[in-house]
Amino acid sequence: xxxxxxxxxxxxxxxPTRRVKVEIKSLNSKQLDLSMRVPxxxxxxxxxxRNGLAQRLERGKVELNATVENIVxxxxxxxxxxxxxxxxxxxxxxxxxxxxxxxxDWYSLLLRMPESMKVETAVVDxxxxxxFRLACEExxxxxxxxxxxxxxxLYAFFIEKIGRLRTLLSEIEPYESERVPKIRERxxxxxxxxxxxxxxxxxxxxxxxxxxxxxxxxxxKVRLSAHLNYFMETLGGExxxxxxxxxxxxxxxxxxxxxxxxxxxxxxNQADMQQIVxxxxxxxxxxxxxxxxxx
Length: 295
Fold this sequence. Notes:
By secondary structure, this protein is an alpha+beta fold. The chain has helices at residues 46-57, 81-98, 106-111, 126-192, 201-215, 218-235, 246-268, 271-291, and strands at residues 7-14, 18-27, 32-37, 60-70, 77-79, 117-119. Strand 1 (7-14) and strand 2 (18-27) form a beta hairpin.
């Protein structure tokens, strides 16, 4: 069973003082494009977490967003008393020199001065680091489950489309059996009208055989059928989850299927067969669009 690159997951964990929440979403991409927005207190874990996420997610445009909430009320902002004392002394000296009156409200004046408040860097202990790791794991697990559910939808879609291609391929057979005799009959009819021209009938027979062989699509039908089988084999069973990497492989197989369909179209030389080929191309185009979402 395949998995989709598209998904969303949410996870959370908490300590006695803080609650950590992590949300992660993924869209399709040729490679892994991972962006993380985490609080500064968890930055030292970012490299380690990034490596772990890369191993589990493999591919996709992934965005991770982590937030931290305080459960217990606390403040990390304090008045910078030492700096304000220096400001007050300098202002008093300025007043004496310039013979200025003292301010009516020292508090409002001093608190407007630069860096009057200082913010203390929050200290993160081992339990909060562990909470962040657990929240990330829960979010990734949820994302993986989401990807698998989307993968089931893609699996059903591919089953339907490959079955449709098989049906269209079988519809070519009646036209193929009628086409060659009709082409031969038409050529012979045209030659019979050329009464004034002499030609080697043996050589003509050889050329006719060569021309008809060039229009034969038996090999293309066999190869196309083999590619369809390989596509199904790569999809895997309905309850058989694979580690990933099928997306690129399915894309390559779809390209090969397209080559055989194009060759069928160039050799068809018959209106009904060409219509079938057009319908096959339409089905294949839908497959290619959805293959881009496969992990």
